Amino acid sequence: MSAKAANQAQVDYWNSGAGPVWVEFQERLDRQLDSLGQTALSALGVRAGERVLDIGCGCGDTTLALAEAVGAAGEVLGVDVSEPMLTVARRRAAGTETVGFLQADAQTADLGSARFDAAYSRFGVMFFSDPTAAFRNIGNALRVGGRLGFVCWRPLAENFWMRGPVEAAAPFLPPPAPSDPEAPGPFAFADSSRVRKILGAAGWTKIEIRPHDAEIGVGDAEATMALTMKVGPLGAALRETPEAAPRVMQAVREFLTRHEGPAGVRLPAAAWIVTAERG
């Protein structure tokens, strides 16, 4: 498989399908994922003056957080395949001299050799067709002893924030087709033993993987429903079965309303916090 074609399906998806949707809901998505990303950032322990690679930087929220951590003497490069999302990221980072962005596939792109002190990702590393090759390439961009830190999802069954709406909508949608649990996608790293094996094969050492649980949300039931209907498994199902949207919307609204409290809808999320060191 050529380098260009290695992740072409994901490149197409994040430019023509998911990318514009994530741009539309950028503020809500950042709010939803922020605490999980901050936990991974704390585990990575970025220091002032360091050079950091942000993998799957999306609309730039994490890149800006990293830039604040490294300060004026540091450097952050955000890498993503999605031009719509990078357009937003560049606009948000305008005037921040320590930040740069690169539209590229981190599995195959030339990210430099021993250029960075650390690499970070908030839910951006589960989409590689060959994750071992991707993490080897990322490792090559770090100095010896450079650090890796990222957050990824545990299984869908443990993530009620996503599973609950899907189950509420299930009576009105065709049964999902069987899928490969290791195929590129949000839950490709749900199995921690697989993550450990991938990182070890890619040359990483001192691998630590710990579970992290939190409640996440974006606002009230209506705000949450608008996001849920467009993003994730339910959004993907509705793109295939748009005629089901009215009945799905009603079922999801009822589900979310039952879980709405003074702080809006907040539902349990389950993630892995992963750290490692380049050997």
Q: Which characteristics define this entry?
A:
single chain; 279 residues; alpha/beta; eight-stranded mixed sheet; 10 helices; 8 strands; globular
Write up this protein.
It is a single chain. With 279 residues, the chain is an alpha/beta fold. It is 42% helix and 24% strand. It contains ten helices and eight strands. α1 packs across α4 (83-92). It is globular and about 55 Å long. The model has no long low-confidence stretch (mean pLDDT 95).
Helix content: 40-55%
The portion of residues forming beta strands comes to: 15-25%
| Shape field | globular
Radius of gyration: 18 Å
Number of strands: 8
> What is the overall number of helices?
10
- State the secondary-structure class: alpha/beta
Which stretches are low in confidence, meaning pLDDT under 50 for 5 or more residues running?
none
Give me the strand/helix succession: HHEHEHEEHEHHEHHHEE
Tell me the quaternary state.
single chain
Largest sheet: 8 strands, mixed
Distance between the termini: 27 Å
Residue-averaged pLDDT, rounded? 95
